[in-house]
């Protein structure tokens, strides 16, 4: 029986390994983590992450061929294939601070693998890492491995949160990079055999190590660039009377461009896009390519501009101040169908408001932090509010009783839709002053220009 161990039981390690265990009953999968509470949650009925379909997959295989454990060393020692899916955040200090990937967790995992291994192993980079990381990992393993042979593979993960299980069941592609030596090719084949249990062979791409590592950064950069492109257009739409939804649709019907990922928004968030682009920018700079670095930096600049532009619209519309006003924030996660709030645009938007004054959040656990109170219910959040901001596109916000909300708000009542999910005409009929990203402006907003 092949044994797999995955170091890191997070948003990637947990769901990915659960799906491997489900699809490969002949493989034993252990997911290990240094976080005792995370592992306890994986072993409970309340999983540590919310992801549609995940509970079901875990229930089917946990205790059968899927195990969650804090005994990292034991499971690494016993495994044939070790996935490393630890976090790789942006460095906050030292060389490359604010841009480079912090590989501390990765390096410590690699040193531990070298330390505890007693048999040859395939080590798989699942985390998103800078191109050429495999070379560094190889050095750590071979210099500390006491003669044990390690093959390093790059197998970046392309799942998106909120659709992780769907993405893992039917991936657009699985990418495996390895050394072009006979041993490297044998290792690639071993990992291919795992995925081949459910992924059609033509969707399993194999490349050299550096192409696989760089493809992950490139894919995220391209995706984020599309959002910044449509968000840049949304500003021009507001200035000209064009409607960004219509423009996106018209542009996306070109088969060379395609319709997906063209939704204008308050800005992209999440733990990946900004971090990975900053990482790409740093790599370009380190390789003497300042023009390329500058090109990708613009994607983040536009994203910051978009968040700032949204806040300016809110403040300018409300007589240039939010002082002594109640603002209801609907949604806090960085996108719908996830509980993840890492790098959510809602944090930046709220930080840009005047913190001397009350801001009301929903939905999170009921608690009160400084000027922020958190409630479960959109109706409670909007009661007596001067304005409401939709910052996550949760389905429930599409179907609220907006008449009831209007009746209970201060007048004039404002809706600022950062996700383009409300029916603007209907809300205007009710009496709201509505701002919806990239849509033709309410006459009220035209009279209150917001300078970005
Ligand atoms: P995460 O923070 O949710 O999980 C990482 C886990 O690794 C944590 O639970 C942490 O305790 C554990 N860990 C850290 N060092 C460890 C060690 N030495 N031994 C054992 N456990 C250790 O992170 P994530 O969102 O799962 O992301 C993991 C990687 O995958 C990152 O490189 C990320 O860029 C990449 N990625 C993430 C996504 C996503 O949607 N979140 C998608 C694709 C790729
Ligand atoms: C992303 C990549 O999609 C995934 O392939 C990679 O593995 C990890 O990073 P994720 O961050 O989980 O996934 O979610 P994604 O759906 O890409 O959304 C990222 C952000 O962009 C969210 O804040 C989302 O609301 C925003 N977005 C997305 C838009 O603003 N407009 C769009 O059209 C699409």
UniProtKB/TrEMBL annotation:
Keywords assigned: NAD, Oxidoreductase
Pathway(s) served: Nucleotide-sugar biosynthesis; UDP-alpha-D-glucuronate biosynthesis; UDP-alpha-D-glucuronate from UDP-alpha-D-glucose: step 1/1
Single GO biological process annotation from the record: glycosaminoglycan biosynthetic process
The enzyme's E.C. designation: 1.1.1.22
First-level EC class: oxidoreductase
Record-level GO cellular component terms: nucleus
Domain UDP-glucose/GDP-mannose dehydrogenase C-terminal: 328-424
Keyword Transmembrane: no
Record carries keyword NAD: yes
InterPro entries assigned: 6-PGluconate_DH-like_C_sf, NAD(P)-bd_dom_sf, UDP-Glc/GDP-Man, UDP-Glc/GDP-Man_DH_C, UDP-Glc/GDP-Man_DH_C_sf, UDP-Glc/GDP-Man_DH_dimer, UDP-Glc/GDP-Man_DH_N, UDPglc_DH_euk
GO molecular function: NAD binding; UDP-glucose 6-dehydrogenase activity
Domain of life: Eukaryota
Active site, per annotation: 272
NCBIfam families listed in its UniProt record: NDP-sugDHase
Family listed: Belongs to the UDP-glucose/GDP-mannose dehydrogenase family.
PANTHER family reported for this sequence: UDP-GLUCOSE 6-DEHYDROGENASE 2 (PTHR11374:SF64), UDP-GLUCOSE DEHYDROGENASE/UDP-MANNAC DEHYDROGENASE (PTHR11374)
The protein's name in its UniProt record: UDP-glucose 6-dehydrogenase
Organism, scientific name: Senna tora
């Amino acid at each position: 029986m092949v044994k797999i161990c995955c170091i890191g039981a997070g948003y990637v390690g947990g769901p990915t390994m659960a799906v491997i265990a489900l699809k490969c009953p002949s493989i034993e999968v252990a997911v290990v983590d240094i976080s005792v509470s995370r592992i306890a949650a994986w072993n409970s009925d309340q999983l540590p992450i919310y992801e549609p379909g995940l509970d079901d997959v875990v229930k089917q295989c946990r205790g059968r061929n899927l195990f969650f454990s804090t005994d990292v060393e034991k499971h690494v020692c016993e495994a044939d294939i070790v996935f490393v899916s630890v976090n790789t955040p942006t460095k906050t200090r030292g060389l490359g601070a604010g841009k480079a990937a912090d590989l501390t967790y990765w390096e410590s995992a690699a040193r531990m693998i070298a330390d505890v291994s007693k048999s040859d192993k395939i080590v798989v980079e699942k985390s998103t890492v800078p191109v050429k990381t495999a070379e560094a990992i190889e050095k750590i393993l071979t210099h500390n491995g006491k003669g044990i042979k390690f093959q390093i593979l790059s197998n970046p993960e392309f799942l998106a949160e909120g659709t992780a299980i769907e993405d893992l069941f039917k991936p657009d592609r699985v990418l495996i990079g390895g050394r072009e030596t006979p041993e490297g090719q044998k290792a690639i084949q071993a990992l291919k055999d795992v995925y081949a249990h459910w992924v059609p062979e033509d969707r399993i791409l194999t490349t050299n190590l550096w192409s696989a590592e760089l493809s992950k950064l490139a894919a995220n950069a391209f995706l984020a660039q599309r959002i910044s492109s449509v968000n840049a257009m949304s500003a021009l739409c507001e200035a000209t009377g064009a409607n960004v939804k219509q423009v996106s649709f018209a542009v996306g019907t070109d088969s060379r461009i395609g319709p997906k990922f063209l939704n204008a928004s308050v800005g992209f968030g999440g733990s990946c896009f900004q971090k990975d682009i900053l990482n790409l920018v740093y790599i370009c700079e380190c390789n003497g390519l300042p023009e390329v670095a500058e090109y990708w930096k613009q994607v983040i600049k536009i994203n910051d501009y978009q968040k700032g532009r949204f806040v300016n619209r809110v403040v300018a519309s409300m007589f240039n101040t939010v002082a002594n006003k109640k603002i209801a924030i609907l949604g806090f996660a960085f996108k719908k169908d996830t509980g993840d709030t890492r790098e959510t645009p809602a944090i930046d938007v709220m930080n840009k408001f005047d913190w001397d004054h009350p801001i009301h959040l929903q939905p999170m656990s009921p608690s009160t932090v400084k000027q922020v109170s958190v409630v479960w219910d959109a109706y409670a959040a909007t009661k007596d509010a001067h304005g409401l901001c939709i910052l996550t596109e949760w389905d429930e916000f599409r179907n609220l009783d907006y008449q009831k909300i209007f009746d209970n708000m201060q007048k004039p009542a404002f809706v600022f839709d950062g996700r383009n999910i409300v029916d603007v005409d209907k809300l205007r009929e009710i009496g709201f002053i509505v701002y919806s990203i990239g849509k033709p402006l309410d006459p009220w907003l035209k009279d209150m220009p917001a300078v970005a």
